[in-house]
Design goal:
Layout (H helix, E strand, L loop, with lengths): L6 H11 L5 H73 L5 H13 L5
Helix pairs in contact: 2-3
Length: about 120
């Protein structure tokens, strides 16, 4: 069998040499089944890739939402700290035996700083 012979040419030679026992005939169905299985698996892989792309996009959106929520939480935490400082200043002012103008100014300044941004 020469390397340049086509598959049908090889089949004829093998069939003449071993009638009814040609390896090409025996494995032809198996090869066809494997090719069909390969095509099916390729299609499943394509579908899985599409699902992964959608899942990654959805995950990216969730990460952005979480980042936004973290920033909002941090803003509210900072605001709560400012309001706590303002409250402490008012307590110092109210508990002072001789409330000074400086304590009042500090309490007012901290209260203004603790206003929620609009």
């Amino acid at each position: 069998m020469s390397p340049k012979q086509t598959l049908p040419g090889q089949h004829v030679i093998l069939e003449k040499a071993w009638p009814g026992d040609c390896c090409l005939c025996t494995h032809e169905a198996t090869i066809a089944d494997l090719r069909a299985e390969n095509a099916r698996l390729q299609e499943q892989m394509k579908e899985a890739d599409e699902v992964v792309v959608l899942a990654v996009a959805a995950l990216h959106e969730r990460v952005q939402e979480v980042d936004l929520l973290k920033r909002e939480r941090d803003d509210y935490k900072a605001l709560a700290e400012l309001r706590g400082e303002a409250l402490d200043a008012w307590v110092r002012y109210s508990l002072s035996s001789k409330p000074s103008k400086e304590l009042l100014v500090e309490a007012l300044r901290l209260t203004d700083a603790a206003e929620e941004p609009r």
